[in-house]
Amino acid sequence: MMKKYLVIFTVMLAILTVGCGTSKQKNKETTELPAKKYVIVTEQNAEVTLNFVDIKGSVKNTSNEKEIGYVLLRYETLSEEGEVLDSQQIPIFGPIRPNESKMFTSIAPWPKKGIKYTIKVDDARYGTY
Question: Which of 39, 40, 95, 104 is geometrically suited to a Cys-Cys bond with 124, CB 3.0 to 4.6 A?
Answer without folding.
Answer: 39
